[in-house]
Records
---
Amino acid sequence: MLKEINSLHGDSNPNHFTELNGKLYFNADDGINGSELWVTDGTTDGTFMVKNIRLSGSSDPANFTELNGKLYFQAGVPEYGRELWSTDGTDEGTVMVKDINPEEGFSNSNARHLIQFDGKLYFQATDGTNGAELWVTDETSDGTVMVKNINPTGDSDPLDFAEFDGKLYFQANDGTNGSELWVTDGTEAGTVMLTDINTSGDSDPSDLTEFDGKLYFQANDGTNGSELWVTDGTEAGTVMLTNINTSGDSSPNLFIEFDGMLYFQANDGTNGSELWVTDGTEAGTVMVKNINPIGDGGPKNFIIMNSALYFQASNGTDGFELWITDGTDDGTFMLKDINPTGDGYPGYFTELNDKLYFTADDGTHGKELWVTDGTSRGTYMVKDISPGSDDGWPTYLTLVP
């Protein structure tokens, strides 16, 4: 244990770990000041509260995002509500950027979905008048403004941001066309709906992921269900790549590029939710392996290490365990049955020195810290942090240089 942050011997619940300038920033509760902004340099003395933002409770900082050597986040104080804050790592340098929602009392702008783009920070916020809209900051109060009031009658709810080809793409609702695919170049005039995929409702584009010079995502055109779509950034070039599930939703998600291909989870309506791959063509969009012949393989928690893709999945017999693939059917297999009597539930994967660290439950020791070198023999519990069947619950594994 690096430090007992909660001196009252309760839970400090450190979370939202984010690295900045070689240090780790996070939210923690010392039992006296509430959930506040903390930092560590990896030493006991170097682990301390940066600032007690809310003197009479928890400011509960969250949604940390780096921009130009500072960390931006959402935090709450009674005078202003939950607003956009920034820190340079010092007490005096931890300040509210702007009171976006100036209504009296605990009024919230709820600045969230923060993303760095073109030297500025874009996010969703509400000023108390215009609803949840697209905002931007250049790190100054005057330069923190609404980019566009996309939905004049309510919340446009911009989210799922992805940078592609020098622009920022996202999902938004203009109050007329439903939740559709939008794009911005950072100007009001350049913030437009790319195309109305579902003319009768919401297409709900999500999981926007760049691959091989195009943007791939899940969307519903109102006829074919939630399927795999692609765009080159033009209306004419925004098309459904393939209808994986002709009888319903294939719901492709969890996209990850690996070995020149795009892997994801999808359901073809016959084999359940399984591991799929695409090379960007309809013919090249195929199921890698039917991991669970009697139900959902449910592959998730994808991570790449040493020319292989690791993930959690279930074959219907051994529960959710640690799997690996090289992209072929024969090369997709369970690396280790961590919990022989149930589910190992491996997750929070983090690579360090050519090994993969993660949380898993072997059915005896509870959820503890595990490691693998890519072999079954080299997959083992690092330490039983909470001896016995209790969970050590190592989570939020974060690599700091």
---
Amino acid sequence: MFAGDLLAERARITPDRVALVSVEAGERLTYAQLNECANHAAAMILGAGLESGDRVGLFAQNSIDFIAVFFGALKTGVIIVPLSTRATAHELSIIAADCGMKILFHDGSAPDVNGVTLARLNIVPSSRTVPHRIPDPESTACLLYTSGTTGKPKGVMIPHRQLLANGYNTAINWGLREDDVAPIFTPLYHAGGVAVFLIPLFLMGGTIVLHRGFDATEIWETIERERCTIVLGVPTIWKMLRDAPQFATADLSHVRWFISGGAPLPAFLIDAYQQRGVTLKQGYGLTEVGVNCFTMTIEYARNRPGSIGRPMMFTEVRLIDDAGNDSDTGEMWIRGPHVSSGYWNNPQATAEAYADGWFRTGDLARRDADGYFFIAGRRKEMFISGGVNVYPAEVEAELLQHPDVSDAAVIAIADETWGEVGVAFVVAHGVADVDLVEFLNARLSRYKVPRRFIFVDALPRTPYGKVVKEELRKQLA
């Protein structure tokens, strides 16, 4: 697997094709212009005294400058560390100390970080020559820190090999085209921001429409105005887009498909978009395995709602049961060229999660007779009630079928009689717990029905839609 300067190569082949449309700035950049911005960003990085292998932080909202610095860093060999703009100074200091960060580039909103030099993003034309280099495919291109919802954040080492392998596999298996147009409104500092669709679509020569953040009305306007063909979102976003007034009238004739990731996709959302004539697929991935690991045709996506599809080409997947044997149901292990190198400065966590090229995802899944996979939930979230396994994701999916429930999450608590029972946190209007019990009793075995319902205004979620269940446990305690 080779590595190289992706943006420079695309600019060489299709210099005049539009690469990036910035909704906020009102600018349209060709590949040649975007590559020039990245070269100037590389000169800024080198001018700050950084060398290959040094770690440099990036704290900024979605912008042209963010993309320029990311690709500029790849040109120089420094290791770029994109940071959540939601993080506190304390959280950022932990990450900075863990990776030995030297400089933190920011767009004017970064808090002070202990022991790190802050530098305002100032990408200006430069005559400094950026040395042409072909990186070692296994050298680390960037560090993507996990959310830290269950403890200290871990820095996932993303090698150059992984960035390109994931990009090629996504482009080929998802059938991306040079005329595809995709909006990005999820944070670029997250793995999904880079891997879907930024790098895959740049490989194909398509166009990215960049939003600073999410606004349902603005997104629908972009989809129509720019004639977007493919769109990524998370379930929470797909629900907000469905609930927006533009959902019923937006022109979707140019859309090839939508895709959801980050969390299980409820069946009612799939149905809602199919009624509008658009296939809403469900993807699967993790930061550690390149975000995109499965693929499915439009035909099969319609016939197998809830499935994440089959493994992509050159992707191996095993399901390991509680006895450590291969099975059709169990914890999902993934191996392939898109798997990361391990965790920065954390050999213990690396040894626990990586073995012989396999990454243990911690997700439980089942495989049907035709080789299609379905996610059952997180291994750590599964609980045993009365000697029987209960998967919170299954209960949550049924709760979301209730017309008055807009969001739900289930966790387990100890019970003297049953060992463990479920507690459901529910966002709903005009419904009581007895109504939900009656509703679930008609759809689930009795042992799966939560014994307690807590009604809340909103669930704590990461920027990519995953419920932060540790926060729910703290609330319960």
---
Amino acid sequence: MIHDLALYVAKEEFVAVDSHTSNIPEHTRHITVVENNSLDSGLFPKSKSLRTTLFPMKGVGLDSQTLLNTWISRYKYLRYLGLRDSSFDTLPNLIAKLEHLRVLNIINNRKIRRLPCSICKLHNLQVLRLIGCTELETSPRGLGMLISLRELYITTKQSVMSLTKFENLNHLQVLSFCDCENMKFLFSQAQRITSLEKLTILSCGSLESLPLFIFPKLQDLIISDC
């Protein structure tokens, strides 16, 4: 009954896309894709009103670079771009055009190696999720330009994380490293991240150094399988 009520209230503003979906109304604002074989580019409206794209089902993601480019160039007012379990090679430089974006979720993309520098122009971005991107060679250059960032979750192949990338992230509250197998040193400099409240480090087996004194407001610390 609650589900039916939610569908009634949402009307056509929310659409769950599956193999039975034949049309997405122009005024749809939130799209969730639940089946891989439903990703026909002709389905998606040309209207710029879309605010959310989401892949909530495990194993269901986007593998079409062309469709991703279309979404990013067409839907300039996106607030939430959820690309979980996708397998595209790169984000287009056009990502910088999504100046209203609040959340970018690329969890479990096993192919992506680098993020474009243009991603750092997303000055309204609050949440960036890169956990499970096991081929990601390094965090974005210019990360400190994401001045609104509050939560960062990252998997990377780099061995040292420089604190200089974080020195301008004055609103960062949650930071998580997971499956960073090569990571030896976290933040070797003496600067502080004064806003951080929660730090999580999971499955970083090479870690040798972690200067906790640089987090004066830390409330939650989780270290597991290191």
